[in-house]
Design goal:
The protein is of the alpha/beta class. The protein has ten helices and nine strands. It has a nine-stranded parallel β-sheet, with helices on both faces. Helix 6 links the parallel strand 3 and strand 4.
Length: about 300
């Protein structure tokens, strides 16, 4: 009987790419050769580092691609590693940095879940072959003695986002991205503009509670070549005062949109959004700021479950 190792390496890697994470890691533990093949076969990874089991379960509720569940890795920190907010963030970034660094050359789809982005940005920026990137920093249901609830309302600006675009014009960090999802990220208009300029293939853009973005984001997007091909724009949970009907005039500059969500942008009038879509935009899937079709903002959980 022929061994699986008799397959050509390129075929074996293609087979391993479809295995669930546990099976893939088990295969890699059977021999040095299998470990080497396993290390270059992981293309999709959904990685979350949590402070409790219940937070890990809640983290699974919000996903955009069911296939990512096959490549889901949830790590729960020990009690000694969650004594302070600073300690949690440091340990989350350290774990994500180490895992992503190991597979940075083969990853095509990456989603990371943590409280704040610091060291991990360095390893993510080196995953140059990514097609899809999701960075989730919004976890308002998390409870920790050292964290105030206001922490989840906004994310301060940071130079960490500079790692995701070239330091000089003409240089790129990623370049192949097709989908980008950012949640509670303190990225600015300029940082996101540079990010998007280097990734003209992006057709899906999700920005949730990114309060550092202003009307300039919409203006720049509408006047860019990328804005002409963008098919999905979900700009949600932004309660900044400037996010009102003024941003709507820029939607007309996004002619390829088939899905637009402004859910949670409560300063925007839903009736005006519906009217403009009926008369001007004609977007097939539209979620208004106060739409009943939007996912709930609050998830009820048992507070006694640990």
């Amino acid at each position: 009987m022929s061994s699986i190792t008799s397959l050509p390496p390129e075929i074996l890697r293609e087979v391993l790419r479809h295995l669930p994470i546990p099976a893939l890691l088990s295969f890699g533990g059977t021999s040095k050769y299998h470990h080497a093949i396993q290390s270059i076969s992981l293309s999709k990874l959904r990685l979350g580092v949590f402070t409790s089991r219940i937070n890990a379960m809640i983290g699974l509720l919000d996903t955009h691609d069911d296939q990512r569940k096959t490549h889901n890795v949830q790590i729960v920190l020990s009690k000694k590693d969650v004594r302070s907010k600073k300690m949690v963030i440091r340990n989350q970034n350290k774990i994500i940095f180490n895992v992503v660094s190991k597979y940075q050359h083969t990853l095509r789809e990456l989603e990371v879940t943590l409280w704040d982005l610091q060291l991990a940005a360095e390893s993510i920026a080196k995953a140059r072959n990514l097609l899809s990137l999701s960075i989730r920093l919004d976890h308002p249901l998390t409870r920790n003695a050292d964290i105030d609830r206001s922490f989840w309302k906004d994310a301060p600006g940071s130079t960490v986002w500079n790692a995701f675009y070239g330091k000089e014009k003409g240089t790129t960090v990623f370049g192949r991205l097709e989908s980008l999802n950012l949640e509670r990220c303190g990225i600015t208009d300029y940082q996101l503009q540079r990010f998007l300029e280097e990734n003209p293939r992006i057709t899906q853009l999700r920005l949730r509670k990114c309060l550092g973005l202003t009307e300039d984001f919409f203006r720049n997007l509408a006047h860019s070549m990328q804005g002409k091909s963008l098919r999905l724009l979900h700009f949600t949970q932004n309660t900044a005062e400037w996010v009102d009907e003024r941003v709507l005039k820029h939607v007309e500059g996004l002619p390829s949109l088939t899905s637009l969500s402004l859910h949670g942008c409560h300063n925007v009038d839903s009736d005006i959004v519906k009217k403009m879509n009926a008369e001007q935009w004609h977007i097939k899937e539209l979620i208004t700021p106060h739409s009943a079709d939007s996912p709930p903002d609050v998830v009820e959980v048992d507070p006694l479950y640990k």
